[in-house]
Amino acid sequence: MKIQCNQCGAQGSIDAAKIPSQGAKISCPRCKNIFWVKKEEPLPVPSVGSAKNPMPSGTAVQEASPIPPESGGAPAPPSKDTILVPPETTAQEADRAARQGIEFLRKKMFKEALESFQRVVELNPRHPEGYRNLGVIYGQQKMWSEALKALEKALEVNPKDLQSQKNLGILYLQQKNFESAFSTLEKVLTLNPKDTKVRTYLDLALKGKKSQAKIAQEPAPPQESMPGTPSPGDLSRGTPENLLGEKQQVPERVPEDVLGRVREEPKEEVPEPASQKPAEPALLEGPSKPEPVKTRVSCLLDEACDLLDSQRPKDAIAKCKEALEIEPYNPSIYFMMGLIYEERQMWDQATQAYEKTLELDPDYEGAQRNLSLVKKQRKKPIWKIWGRK
């Protein structure tokens, strides 16, 4: 007898003879959902000699229903909030629409892709590709509120969807919600430390948080009075009035030249409109490129290298720590600190620096090689390290 999970739509078969008359609880191997299955009661057998009522076939049909209450009563009818899983043909149609939507998305046919994935969530609200790709499409069209709702729904269906979590963090970054972006992207980096793009986005979120905090601490500049606005002293003297007590309008003086002719005011030249700024990148492309951050960190690392060559290791370490305040997840900074500590024969600190480099980037070849050399140096006796016999 064929059965189908009422949550994820997975199908399977079970021997009808093993199902008792009162039904049985079945655990879905895919989503671990437990649902109730029982055999349908056979139809009453008509009389043998009746020609109007032919003998029915003896096939048994399964019925999937919610788990009955512990009290032992009949299964409760499904509520309005219950999501009914579509039959096999509808589930296949949802998969077909998802494949078409992904193909449209690759070709950047966003209108057709949007229609396909809207069809997917209509047929199967718990389809893994539905709300995730709806969030991508809305993000590509810069429809941020719709993208936010779709990504939140995707994480509600599958909380372990790393792609939706990453796109949600980028969306927060686009909206300059740096606090939410930092917390969301930090979770993604913890689960997938090899994703270098997430590390870049995380650095931008941290920089945005610091910038917002700095602006919040600065006092507001004094507001300049607009031209023509009366000062407090003018208001205290009151508005000029005529003898009848009505407000007197002060005529505006027209500028004149020496000969008494009206002098025309020079017209201000309106600057030509600058070239339009490039549009902000869409959701999957992430925020603007972090050239200023990388350039600053590169300068600090160059200064640290020069200080190391000048036999000023303490100042070189200070430059590295300053770079870490800008990009705390940059493996090159920790690698430079490892070189400095190794030059000073501070093996423990060098080991920690190289291990941190490999934690952030496991494929960092220089750190792998230097870490093995430092570990060998730690095992040597002190007189061999200093070159004594």
How would you describe this protein?
With 389 residues, this protein is mainly alpha-helical. Among the domains are: 49 residues, no CATH class; 127 residues, Tetratricopeptide repeat domain (Serine Threonine Protein Phosphatase 5, Tetratricopeptide repeat); 95 residues, Serine Threonine Protein Phosphatase 5, Tetratricopeptide repeat (Alpha Horseshoe), CATH 1.25.40.10. The protein is 49% helix and 5% strand. The strands form 2 sheets. Strands 3-4-5 form a 3-stranded antiparallel β-sheet, with no helix packed on it. It has a two-stranded antiparallel sheet with strand order 1-2. Strand 3 and strand 4 form a beta hairpin. Helix 2 packs antiparallel against helix 3, helix 3 runs parallel beside helix 5 and helix 5 packs parallel to helix 7. The longest helix has 22 residues.
